[in-house]
Specification:
single chain, alpha+beta, Butyryl-Coa Dehydrogenase, subunit A, domain 1, Butyryl-CoA Dehydrogenase, subunit A, domain 2, Butyryl-CoA Dehydrogenase, subunit A, domain 3, 3 domains, four-stranded antiparallel β-sheet, three-stranded mixed β-sheet, 12 helices, 9 strands, 51% helix, globular, binds flavin-adenine dinucleotide
């Protein structure tokens, strides 16, 4: 066993840190959060570094599928701002990873080279107003009429829909077939006739354009069904397979980045802030809190990278990715809240990054499948008997 990060990942982290220092100063991250705006121009510069190609095979214009590298990029971007990490995920993961796993050859040829260059953003349309965890019961419908498909319904909490080119939409595609065999994915262009988008005002992850989306008789050619004809009614295996496993890791990587940023800030503050004549870092209660956070963060990174390694090797990782989502997101929330307390009242005021980290971290035990759902996944997949 070798736990060292490979040289190319360390180099990638250095490149990302230099990029962030240059293009995404703290003030910019605060402004994107305050204004709830996505820094598209900075994302374009990020794409020019080549990182969007990390999920796309060389045969389709990418750099080769490297899940650990993609997670390292997400972690590094999230240390500064989710408004930058989210468009990266929309391109490299919602677009690149999903189409590599489930697209037809024609769709791969059409989309992957552009995704690898960072030219397209995909939003993930799964959740609906009345359907959260129980995704197999979505009500948005797709009906085939000749060589077209008609989509009707609504999606909720669709991150990035207002800035996306395409909404990767889970639909019910068969009214007769049993549960799990009646779902498909459709590539719905945001600009298609009948698509309406309304922004929502979220607690955290601001700058990532949280949206309500509705589809009113959206008519599309059949080649917009993911996997084309062979993908019809194959939505559940596409969702429950590698796509959702990696989606859990993306969310965990964002949480890890945020926790890491919060700990860096609290660590620095513990040296600067003096009370009772000494730096607060000299008080045992603060030292122990920060030491606990360091240990938990190190464990969280290992759990995440182990699951990312399995996913990268195309090995089964359903249990490990749920464990990573559960452990990293719960640990990251604990770390961020502890770090906020180390900063006292200064961790509670707008304009201080810690206040934003707190708002942001609270969404991660919900988004991408709640902690309770990850526990269900682990127990079910490991066949824990109910009686
Ligand atoms: C910031 C943010 C961004 C998001 N982005 C997207 C996106 O891009 N695309 C998208 O499709 N969705 C997105 N979501 C939605 C997210 O994936 C859902 O919120 C999540 O799946 C949970 O659904 P829900 O909120 O409707 O909760 P519900 O499913 O209604 O659950 C409510 C509560 O009940 C618990 N619960 C439900 N069922 C069970 C069960 N069987 N066992 C135990 N407990 C259970 C849950 O754990 C939760 O605590 C986003 C959410 C947030 C907050």
């Amino acid at each position: 066993m070798d736990f060292r990060e490979p040289d190319h990942i360390r180099l990638l982290r250095d490149t990302m840190r230099a990029f962030i220092a240059r293009e995404a100063p703290r003030e910019a991250a605060q402004r994107w959060d305050r204004e709830d705006s996505t820094p598209r121009a900075v994302f374009e510069k990020l794409a020019a570094t080549g990182v969007c190609a990390l999920t796309v095979p060389e045969s389709h214009g990418g750099a080769g599928r490297d899940i650990i590298a993609a997670m390292a990029v997400i972690e590094e971007l999230s240390r500064r701002s989710l408004a930058l990490a989210v468009p990266y995920i929309m391109c490299a993961c919602y677009g690149g990873m999903n189409l590599v796993a489930a697209g037809s050859e024609k769709q791969r040829a059409q989309y992957l080279p552009r995704l690898a260059r960072g030219e397209l953003l995909f939003a993930y349309g799964l959740t609906e107003p009345d359907i959260g965890a129980d995704l197999a019961n979505v009500r948005t419908r797709a009906t085939r009429r000749g060589d077209t498909v008609i989509v009707n319904g609504a999606k909720r909490f669709c991150t990035g829909a207002a800035i996306a080119d395409t909404i990767y939409t889970l639909v019910r595609s068969d009214s007769e077939a049993p549960k799990y065999k009646n779902l498909s994915f459709v590539l719905v262009p945001r600009s298609a006739k009948g698509v309406s988008i309304a922004r929502m005002d979220g607690l955290g992850m601001r700058g990532a354009s949280l949206c309500d989306v509705s589809f009113d008789d959206v008519e599309l050619p059949l080649d917009h069904v993911v996997g084309e004809d062979a993908g019809w009614n194959q939505g559940w295996p596409m969702l429950a397979g590698p796509a959702l496993d990696v989606e859990k890791l993306e969310v965990a990587a964002m949480a890890l980045g945020l926790a890491s940023a919060a700990l860096d800030d609290a660590w620095a503050y513990a040296h600067e802030r003096k009370q009772f004549g000494v730096a607060i870092g000299a008080h045992q209660s603060v030292r122990h809190v920060l030491a606990d956070c360091k240990a938990t963060l190190a464990a969280a990174r290992l759990v995440l990278m182990h699951a990312a390694w399995l996913a990268g090797e195309n090995r089964p990782c359903g249990v490990e990715s749920s464990m990573a989502k559960l452990f990293v997101c719960e640990s990251a929330e604990t770390i961020v809240l502890a770090c906020q307390r180390v900063m006292g009242a200064y961790g509670c005021v707008a304009g201080v990054d810690m206040e934003r980290y707190v708002r942001d971290i609270l969404v991660f035990n919900i988004a991408g499948g709640s902690s309770a759902i990850q526990k269900n996944n682990i127990a079910n997949r490991l066949d824990l008997k109910r009686g």
